[in-house]
Amino acid sequence: MQTVSRADNPTYWGLIKAFEAITGVPMVVNTSFNDNNEPIVCSPDDALRCFVATDLDALAIGPFWVDSQKVLDAQVTQQGQRHNTTHQRVNEQELMLEVA
Fold first, then answer.
1. For 32, phi and psi rounded to 5 degrees?
2. If both were cysteines, with which of 20, 62, 71, 88 could 26 make a disulfide (CB 3.0 to 4.6 Å apart)?
3. Which pLDDT score is estimated for 89?
4. 3-class SS at 54?
5. Mean of the per-residue pLDDT values of the chain
6. Which residues pair with 59 in a beta bridge?
């Protein structure tokens, strides 16, 4: 087990405290982030690509929070607006909510 102090990493410490306030559990599991047969993500772009390809509910990247329902809503909206045009990628910048 590793510990995190407010002084060492105030953002991560705050995340753990918020999780504790919601669940009553004062810890989180920190694990590698990748899908089957894929390398571990090494950048925010890798994380977003992996996130949209999996069944995760949300993704935290630094001070940003991405919600899977918002991604699905954006994809549906783009599909409705596409009308035989080339595929438009969901703009990850628009999907990220800063929570800092």
1. -65, 155
2. 20
3. 43
4. coil
5. 78
6. 66
The amino acid present at 35, given as its one-letter code, is D
User: Given 3-state DSSP classes, what are the helix, strand and coil percentages for the chain, each rounded to the nearest 5?
Assistant: 40, 10, 45
Residue type, 85: T
Q: pLDDT digits over 41-81, tens only?
A: 999 889 988 988 888 888 888 788 888 887 777 766 666 65
Residue 38's CB is within 10 A of a number of other CB atoms, namely 13
What number is the average pLDDT over the span 25-39?
A: 88
What's the distance, Cα to Cα, between the start and end of the chain in Å? 26
Contact in structure between 27 and 2 (CB atoms under 8 Å): no
| Helix runs in 7-100, H state only | 10-23, 44-52, 68-82, 92-95
Query: Rounded distance, CA 85 to CA 63, Å?
Result: 34
Beta-bridge partners for 65: 60, 97
Q: How far apart are CA 88 and CA 74, in angstroms?
A: 11
